[in-house]
Design a protein that fits this description.
Helix content: under 10%
Distance between the termini: 39 Å
Strand order of the largest sheet: 1-2-3-4-5-6-7-8-9
Oligomer: single chain
Number of strands: 9
Radius of gyration: 16 Å
Strand content: over 45%
Order of helices and strands: EHEEHEEEEEE
Number of helices: 2
């Protein structure tokens, strides 16, 4: 279990700030004791509070529904929660739910062993009707967010 952890200090290259709460089950596999640490696993849930994503602006990308995306920017959020499965060096974030004032979003994100992003969000601004499907690609530290339609 983790409570009130500053995520930017624990994971400085993640591009996310906020306070982390979470719990999970950890595992390690290997044919011999020295090999256990080479393949860690995690299955758990998390919640980030009062945070910020650097390098993507979910609100502007949703507002403009731009297929080209909006380069750079920041996204402040009140709450981001979901599940994390870490297996064979892959990270799978599922059941993601984000709330950020006028913005709410849900979706998933996969990060492969090379740090490449593959994600989908369904974002809604409460200042206009409808939702906008968004695609997240690029790499950790260099994300690309654009509208799917």
């Amino acid at each position: 279990s983790v409570k009130d952890m500053d995520i930017s200090k624990a994971f400085p290259k993640a591009g996310v700030d906020g306070t982390l709460d979470g719990s999970g089950n950890f595992s390690m596999r290997g044919n011999a004791l020295p090999l256990l640490a080479g393949n860690p696993g995690l299955d758990g849930s998390f919640s980030l509070h009062k945070g910020e994503f650097g390098d993507i602006d979910i609100v502007e990308t949703t507002r403009l529904a731009s297929r080209e995306g909006v380069p750079g920017g920041r996204t402040h959020f009140d709450e981001l929660g979901g599940r994390l499965l870490l297996e064979n060096g892959m990270q799978h974030y599922s059941q993601l739910k984000l709330s950020a004032g006028v913005l709410s979003a849900s979706g998933y994100l996969d990060i492969n062993t090379a740090g490449e992003l593959n994600g989908h969000l369904l974002a809604t601004l409460n200042i206009r009707p409808g939702s906008v499907p968004l695609l997240l690609s690029g790499k950790v530290g260099e994300p690309v967010l654009r509208a799917a339609r």
